[in-house]
Design goal:
Layout (H helix, E strand, L loop, with lengths): L9 H22 L10 H14 L5 E4 L5 E6 L52 E5 L3 H5 L16 H4 L8 E7 L8 E7 L12 E9 L8 E9 L1 H4 L5 E7 L17 E2 L22 E8 L6 E5 L3 E6 L13 E9 L26 E9 L5 E3 L4 E4 L6 E7 L3 E7 L9
Antiparallel strand pairs: 1-2, 2-3, 4-13, 4-16, 5-10, 5-14, 6-7, 6-13, 7-8, 9-12, 10-11, 11-12, 14-15, 14-18, 17-18
Organism: Psophocarpus tetragonolobus (Winged bean)
Keywords: Signal
Pfam families: Neprosin, Neprosin_AP
Length: 419
């Protein structure tokens, strides 16, 4: 026989739970870098908790990572992606109909321990996917609940070539022309742990798949790579990430699985989890390989990691322009420069060293490739490069038989020539 609780105790119970949550939050804030405790209203906590309940789906197993992350093993068909209103009638795709010519498919990445949560030897059960759990302090580091997990709008190529770009985003990138018909891109990306000056700055290295207008509100973008973002993750570790938007970063899309959209199919890769090991100056170098391409029959944009390990896909229904094809691809680094204390940030891009320092010192992208109209992966020979302020961050591209088209990029940010 069940226990009946008088409804008159509900307010007392709610008050107790909120007090316990605040106490837990205060304890967590003392143990996590970049998190400062401040008083939070019970109403705001309730809104945050409702949001977290929507994105943190019930798990069949929770794995505690050595870095403090909680990885929830969630049934594939229970993931938040399928809550998106545009995906009500979406049929989950188990695998792409075709890989780009020359690629082989591995279903899972089992033999390598390249994420921190892999190190305790536990894996998610078959039929589930690993999802990094979001917690209250993660949301509180964001500007607001609306901004949690979102990027700020970026300027067009023309406007952001100005070193005084008003939104503070600075880039060192290689890119294709804006009139091409592109169906995917690939690169191998060197992984480092750049220093971040303040909590709401970040440093990332990624691939952008783009279509639409840079100056309007209809830009479609699919993105993946690694990033260091204290605001988003609460630490300074480089992490695998994804992003998407269909309206120039205004209201749609998010990082990783922090909103409905990206459909994960892989049971061994946690998007948003820390990458390990990472490169060291003038020592061992480590990199990751990412391929994003449009399924030629179904139309979904798939992502693979390493040697063809499928991660998941962005459904075609999410996009307008990318529902057809991309018109531009970008590869490279991005930082946020908030000009704290009236100076250029000292947040590093890549390794924190300029392109001219070369292998083992500067960060690199190698083997740049695109997918063409025939679903063929081919090396990119004609690329353009852009760095807004070469005294802060720069880029230098080249070609070799071993690395194909490649470039070194990055820099320290603030220095005597970058005040």
């Amino acid at each position: 026989m069940g226990t009946v609780v008088c409804s008159c105790y509900a307010p007392l119970l709610l008050g107790f739970l909120l007090a316990l949550l605040l106490q837990t939050l205060e304890v967590e804030s003392r143990t996590l870098n970049y998190t400062s405790y401040r008083k939070v209203s019970s109403l705001r906590l309730q809104r945050i908790q409702r949001h977290l309940d929507n994105i943190n789906k019930p798990s069949v197993l929770t794995i505690e990572s050595p870095d403090g992350d909680l990885i929830d093993c969630v049934h594939k068909r229970k993931q938040a992606a399928l809550d998106h209103p545009l995906l009500k009638n979406h049929k989950m795709q188990k695998a792409p109909t075709n890989m780009p010519r020359g690629m082989k498919v591995k279903r899972e990445e089992k033999e390598k321990e390249w994420q921190m949560w892999h190190k305790n030897g536990t894996r998610c059960p078959r039929g589930t996917i690993p999802i990094r759990r979001s917690r209250v302090h993660d949301v509180l580091r964001a500007k607001s609940l609306f901004h949690f997990g979102k990027k700020q709008p970026r300027f067009s190529l023309t406007r952001r070539s100005d070193s005084d770009a008003g939104n503070g985003h600075e880039h060192a990138i290689a890119y294709t022309g804006s009139t091409e018909e592109v169906y995917g891109a690939k690169a191998t990306i060197n992984v480092w742990e750049p220093s971040i000056q303040v909590v709401n700055e970040f440093s990332l290295s990624q691939i952008w798949i783009l279509s639409g207008s840079f100056d309007g509100s209809d830009l479609n973008s699919i993105e993946a790579g690694w990033q260091v973002s204290p605001e988003l993750y609460g630490d300074s570790r480089p992490r695998l990430f994804t992003y998407w938007t269909s309206d120039s970063y205004e209201a749609t899309g998010c990082y990783n699985l922090l909103c409905a959209g990206f459909v994960q199919t892989n049971g061994g890769i946690a998007i948003g989890a820390a990458i390990s090991p990472i490169s060291s100056y003038d020592a061992n170098q480590y990199d990751i390989t990412i391929l994003i391409w449009k399924d030629p029959k179904v139309g979904n944009w798939w992502m693979s990691f390493g040697d063809g390990t499928l991660v998941g896909y962005w459904p075609e229904e999410l996009f307008t322009h990318l529902g057809r094809h991309a018109t531009m691809v970008e590869w490279g680094g991005e930082v946020v420069n908030t000009r704290a204390n009236g100076q250029h940030t000292s947040t590093q891009m890549g390794s924190g060293h300029f392109a001219g320092d070369g292998f083992g010192k500067a960060s690199y992208f190698r083997n740049l490739e695109i997918v063409d109209t025939d679903n063929t992966l081919s090396s990119v020979h004609n690329i353009l490069t852009l760095a807004q302020n070469t005294n802060c961050y720069d880029i230098h591209s080249s070609y070799s038989n071993q690395w194909g088209t490649y470039f070194y990029y990055g820099g320290p940010g603030n220095n005597p020539h970058c005040p």
